[in-house]
Design goal:
Radius of gyration: 25 Å
Number of helices: 3
Mean pLDDT: 80
Helix content: 40-55%
Largest sheet: 3 strands, antiparallel
Number of strands: 3
Order of helices and strands: EEHEHH
Structural class: alpha+beta
Strand order of the largest sheet: 1-2-3
Low-confidence stretches: none
Distance between the termini: 64 Å
Strand content: 15-25%
Shape: extended
Number of domains: 2
Length: 101
């Protein structure tokens, strides 16, 4: 499947199409499917989906681990910015337009 964003008729829209059909390398005859239509079908599917307790716990643990990892990377990335911003603290009063002396 190939996903594409296109612009036309004054708006942008996304759609899926078979990459073989797009490249004319097969005789697949289904035209594009809008991302909106796929989203609607996924919502219907998820409305009927039942997740057992074990799977929920496993997904929860994986999401929690991913969130902690992402937060740790963000803190590591932003640490140099925080330390540099401390050096500007003596000039903070200049921001209220009262002037710097």
């Amino acid at each position: 499947m190939l996903f594409s964003h296109n612009h036309g008729h004054g708006c942008a829209y996304g759609y899926f199409v078979c990459i073989g059909r797009h490249g004319k390398s097969n005789d697949y005859d289904l035209p594009y499917i809008s991302a909106e239509e796929i989203e609607h079908h996924l919502e219907d599917y998820y409305d009927n989906m039942v997740i057992d307790e074990r799977t929920m716990h496993s997904v929860y643990k994986a999401l929690l681990a991913a969130a902690k990892k992402r937060n740790a990377r963000a803190l590591q990335r932003d640490a140099p910015i925080s330390s540099r911003s401390e050096s500007f603290r003596p000039l903070a009063h200049c921001l209220d337009n009262s002037g710097c002396d």
